[in-house]
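Quick entry between incubations.
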Amino acid sequence: MEVLRAESLVKVYRRGAHSINAVADVSLSISQGECICVLGRSGSGKTTLLNMLGLLLAPTSGRILMAGKEIDLSAPAGLAALRREHFGFIFQDFTLIPHLSAEENVALPLKYAGVGREKRYARAREMLERVGLGGRLGFKWDELSGGEAQRVAIARAMVNRPRLIFADEPTSELDSETSRSLLELLTELRNEAGTSLLIVSHDRDIASYADRVFRMKDGALSSEPSDKAQ
Amino acid sequence: MAILGIGVACFVLFVTGSMSEYFMSISSHFRKSFQGRLIACEKKSFWAGGGLISEQKVKVFEELEGVKAVIPILIGRLGSDEAFTIGVPFTIAGIPADRMPLYIDSAVIGEGGLPASDDEMTVVAGYDIARQNRLHVGGHFNIRGKDFSVRGLLRKTGSLEDRQIFMSLRNAQQILLRPHLITALVVVPAGGREAAALPAKITEKISWIQVITSDELDRELRSTRRYWEILTSLCALLSGISSLLCIAIVMVMAVHERTGEIGLRKALGAENRHIVAELLSEVTVLSLAGWMAGIATALVFIGLFTVSPLNGDAVVFRITARLVVFSLLWSLAAGALAGLFPALRAASIEPVKAMRKV
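Done. Structure below.
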């Protein structure tokens, strides 16, 4: 079953008289439970693509469909509702809100979804225990290691039981051992919940966790053989 | 900084507001107690507390057609005459004992009663004086070296009477060293058509006398009240502008520092209304803290000023529930107003652009 489909997505940045085609006519379909990896160098347009698919950035042209229904990209409130109900995000640089505890960070998407305080904190605790951080509930960002912070980010991305998780360079700041355990955890949780995953990274090793692999170059997307399939 | 801004503004608003409230209360009771009566005093002396008139002039007033009764009054400071005061000090009011029932409403007598016609060296104390000096009926009160027995105590009225001690005119003249003199006369008209013509009749008879009718008193009080309102409004406006600026600066800085966080919250599903509500709730907390700090400082200031030797025995402040509520609402409104624009601006930032500013 198709979760999300992008048709002819284009993103053009204008800088004075110059135009930069960050994403050029990309079409992509993501099925339920599928893991897609988009590889590419810095500046290739992969984060721009992720942001557009995650409804964080409006495309210059093209359309995005969710479960076969076209999304109105001009309605910010509707986009926010779709994000909090169906999507989870793991970002590279900005993982957690520094002045909130791990528990509060994880409960945040549920707060915006209107879930009651008691219920959302119970769910946040449950998720943190699931990622092995049951003993770090009250810890803040600066009291957690890089790997722990990303585990909290994974718990937060999963807390609203999303259909699709977007992960932007989730392991770029981590050592190889921590990266591997983090990706294994993510795969395990994703398999349990049947959640789809779109990862963008410059790290070729991540491709081994993906069902399909794409390469982004100069804004254009091309398919690559998956390590997993091989 | 925001707490300081709101705090200073609340302090100014509360202090000027409580002064204004006190004046409003006094003027409102003053108007009521002289309703339908005339006040006669030396020309241009009314707002200075009255000049001095010979007691013999009372007869001239009593003989005028249309006059039902005349109440001569001598007013003077209870404490030292030289002490500097802002506000309403404790005063002695000397009234002939047989006219006291005409001047003091029996409904305000809390304990005891008014002096009999032949009662000398007795007093009736207003609420504030009685409380401050712990007076009780049958007790004694020393005024300027003379011993008086307390005949009655008045209830709290919120008027000048609270701060007056009533005694016979003769005793007051002795104590205040004003033999055969009075400060003013309260004229009770007989009613009917002649009452309206009475002020003109009085000034025709005694040219150096000023007659204040209750309508004129009303007008004068309204105009003074207007000055107070202008002063209070001006203070509210100036303090409002300063606190708005403080909050706005703090909010702009907070939004700037937390742009990335706002972007992340939006990415996680927060709508513009969530961001605005969160930022405004932070401003509300700041405003409440500022309000509490301002009110606490104002209360300490009022308390210290009231008991300070500089102030003497005068009172200039009246803290009312509506003043407390108004200052609270004002703080919250100022906070919301100053915080709204930065909050709306923060909410309108695209999540991706905002997160780039981390």
